[in-house]
């Protein structure tokens, strides 16, 4: 997985889909320790990226609601 797009450049759906793949690979096992650690770290970064996208969407929704109430 060395030719991956940097996590910071991924959209929500891309990060979510890749995170799903990472989880499946880790669950299957049979991967050496170094690769497992790399996958885990990538998965953590992907999960954080998804959370960032969701937080941004939540903030925009809350702002739209607040603007609509005024």
TrEMBL record:
It is found in: Cytoplasm. The keyword Nucleotide-binding does not apply. It comes from the Bacteria. The keyword Cytoplasm applies. Keywords: Cytoplasm, Exonuclease, Hydrolase, Nuclease. GO terms for biological process: DNA catabolic process. One of its GO terms (cellular component) is exodeoxyribonuclease VII complex. It is an enzyme of class 3 (hydrolase). Belongs to the XseB family. HAMAP family: Exonuc_7_S. It catalyses: Exonucleolytic cleavage in either 5'- to 3'- or 3'- to 5'-direction to yield nucleoside 5'-phosphates. SUPFAM superfamilies: XseB-like. This is Exodeoxyribonuclease 7 small subunit. InterPro entries: Exonuc_VII_S, Exonuc_VII_ssu_sf. Bidirectionally degrades single-stranded DNA into large acid-insoluble oligonucleotides, which are then degraded further into small acid-soluble oligonucleotides.
